[in-house]
Automatic annotation (TrEMBL):
This is Branched-chain-amino-acid aminotransferase. Its EC number is 2.6.1.42. Pathway: Amino-acid biosynthesis; L-isoleucine biosynthesis; L-isoleucine from 2-oxobutanoate: step 4/4; Amino-acid biosynthesis; L-leucine biosynthesis; L-leucine from 3-methyl-2-oxobutanoate: step 4/4; Amino-acid biosynthesis; L-valine biosynthesis; L-valine from pyruvate: step 4/4. NCBIfam families: ilvE_II, PRK13357.1. It comes from Paraburkholderia panacisoli.
Amino acid sequence: MNTETTVQFVISPSTTPTPHDQITASIANPVFGRVFTDHMATVRWTNTLGWHDAKIEARRPFQIDPACAVLHYAQEIFEGMKAYRGEDGSISLFRPFENARRFRASAARMSMAELPEALFVGAVDALVKVDQDWVPGGDGSLYLRPFMFASESFLGVRSSNEYVFCVIASPVGPYFKAGKSAVTVWVSDQYTRAAPGGTGAAKCGGNYAASLIAQTEAAAKGCDQVVFLDAAEHKWIEELGGMNVFFVMDDGSLRTPPLSGTILPGITRASIIDLARQEGITVSEEPYAFETWQADAISGRVKEAFACGTAAVVTAIGEVRHAAGEFKIGHGGEGPVTQRIRTTLTGIQRGKIADPFGWSHHVA
Ligand code: PLP
Ligand code: COI
């Protein structure tokens, strides 16, 4: 059985590639996750062959049996990462081995086959190379979506004996409406995202399915994202539907909820912690109660708050709404600390400033 990373990608370029002028038009102003590149990467796993059949081919629909395991018991995990075009035209990824490691951890939690990290990054690299014309310049990027699902046709409840790993790519601009300097969030008092012992730290589709009702409620309240509190006490701030959260305190320190097992260990979160500590900024990873956040925002002890993640990058939180009222953070727009963190992080990602940690991974 092949458990190694010696799998080679067979590349079969699309016979109907998108013409250049059409690619240029598609990547000029893309809506998040609507436009896709010409190709996809796939690797299959079976309990008898291990990882095999690695391909880059024209993007096409999957044909799956109605009894396909993922349709019934939701064994599915994914990742989110971006390829950036530097000012010199070169293309790079940001800490792709961290995504590969998290993907393995998600697979382990969901009792799925664990893809070797080099194969994960190899698939992403190969796809980005083939579809490199789709990587926008400027503030855009090519969003990459590696994912894996249980592909065995079988209705018994047990781990699948077959999986399909796939990577697709989509040129993207801002996740939130362009030009929005800060978002408004809704604190869910009714729904939780993850409980101790559950799957909160895994990037599995089921977590997002469970969050959608709260996200719909947030949208109905005029909010951009939902904030989840912990499942046990309904007191402690955990994270947003698709992002981690930070608070900027009046003494200049940063605060963010700890990795308790119920939140996603964000790579953006980890990078911001490293960057801040390197600058001598104190970062505390301590539980923070929603009620304290409200009191601190009103008293001025909390100066700024921001959401962070691959899709959201670093986005200021300007206003918070909840069942009993609402409050503003600072002046309701992006504060100076949030702006500086955003500029530093995106500068490293786009090769505009020095990369002290060696986070950029050159592709083409
Ligand atoms: N939390 C959730 C629930 C997410 O979906 C994401 C996005 O992937 C994050 C946090 C941030 O993770 P990362 O910074 O690795 O993109
Ligand atoms: C990402 O940031 O990659 C995510 O998966 C979150 C989602 C809001 C797109």
